Amino acid sequence: MKTAIVRHILVKEKNLAEQLKKKIHDGADFSRIAMQYSTCNSAKKGGELGEVKKGQMVPVIDKLVFTGAERILHGPVKSQFGFHLVEIKFRMDF
Predict the structure, then answer these.
(1) Which of 23, 44, 50, 63 is at 20 to 30 A from 32, Cα to Cα?
(2) Which of 82, 75, 81 is nearest to 22 (CA)?
(3) Helical H runs in 1-94?
């Protein structure tokens, strides 16, 4: 079974997602940005989704999490919920 440890930030506007990504690349703390801006319930935990299983998330995010490079901030990625910034901390395959 494939699983991954993931954190993300969800916002409504692509422009805001791009601004937040730049702030993080420039050294801003991911968890503080998530707590301040993310509209996902995970914002309370600094954007931490914890361990997720393949097929558990919306398809576009699921595909990214299980094929994208680890330890890189991906996005903005559009889903029906808004725009996501996603970091795959690491993946496991049991």
Answers:
(1) 63
(2) 75
(3) 14-25, 30-37, 59-67
Task: Tell me, rounded to whole angstroms, the distance of Cα 49 from its chain centroid.
Answer: 8
What's the CA gap between 76 and 39, in Å, rounded? 14
Give residue-wise pLDDT tens across range 32-56.
Answer: 999 999 999 999 999 999 999 999 9
Contacts of 10 (CB under 8 A, 6+ apart): 38, 39, 40, 81, 82, 83, 84
* Tokens of residue 11, six digits: 């916002």
Q: Which domain holds residue 35?
A: 2-93
Q: Read off the tokens for 54.
A: 């393949």
Which of 86, 92, 63 shows the shortest CA–CA distance to 74?
A: 86
When divided into structural domains, the chain yields a total of: 1
Domain CATH for 40: 3.10.50.40
